[in-house]
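Exercise: predict the fold of this chain.
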Amino acid sequence: RRVHGDQYSNTTMEDPLDNKSFKKEELKSSAPKSAPQRNDILQTNLSSALLGSGLGAFLPGSAFLNQTDVNLMKPLIDQTSSIALQSGNKAQLPEPKLENIVSTVNLDCKLDLRKIALHAKNAEYNPKRFAAVIMRIRDPKTTALIFSSGKMVCTGAKTETDSETAARKYAKTIKKLGFEVRFKEFTIQNIVGSSSVNFAINLEQLQIVHQRFCTYDPEIFPGLIYRMEQPHIVLLVFCSGKVVLTGAKKREQLTQAFQKIYPTLKICRKKDNRMVPPKQDKLLP
C-alpha cells in the first residue's frame, strides 16, 4: 500500500519480477497492430531518419509527419542516407593500390621485327616461341610487345601517365630505326589493383551468399573469383583478406568495386582470426 501523507490508498504496485506482467507485455507487443499504429511507427522511423541524416529542418513542429509528407520525403531520405553511407566508406576504406596498367597503341606502319631485334637495345625476338619483339626500358620500368602489324602493347606501368610516357619512348626508339611511326589510338585496356580488408575471410560462406557471382575451387586455385556486374570488375579474394581487382578501364572503377564488395566481405568475416600454434611433442626426460 502507498502512503500519501496521512492517507492510505488501496492501490497495489505490480511486482517487477512477476512473470504475469512480462507475459502481458509480450502479448501486447506481439499482438497485430492496427493501420493507424503502423502509420505512427512508420512516421516515427522516418522522423528519426531525417534527424539522423541532417534533414531535421524539414520536420514540422510536431514529432510526426503526415502520410503525404512521408511519401514525398522518403526518396530524399533514402538518397541522403546512401550518400552519407558512401561518404563514410570513402573516408574509412583505403583506395586500391595500382599494380599494373596495360595499354595499347597503333604505330600505323608495317614493322620489320628482325631489324628491330638486331638494332634496338634490350630487345629480344624468337618467332618460334612468340610472334612479337619483346622490348624493355628502365624508366619507367615497363615491357612492350611489338607486332609486325604496327600494334604495340605496353605493360608494367604503375600509373596512366607512366604508361603513355613509356609507349612514346618505345615509338621514338622504333622511329630512329627508319620506320615511319605515328603515335595513334593510345588506349588503357586494363588496370590491376590490390588492397586488403585487414581481417580473415570465410570464402566458403562468401560463395554460398553470392553463388551467382563466385567461382571457388581450392584444389585448383586458392582464391575466390568474384565477377562483379556493375562495375564490370573481376576480383580475386583470398582468405587472408587480400583482394586483387582487375578488368578496370579507369582508376575510379577499382575504388567503386572495392567499396561495393567491402560490406559483403565484412559479413563473411571469420570469427576467430588467431593463428593456432602447432602442437609440439613433449620430450621424454
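Check your answer against the key: The chain has a mean pLDDT of 75.
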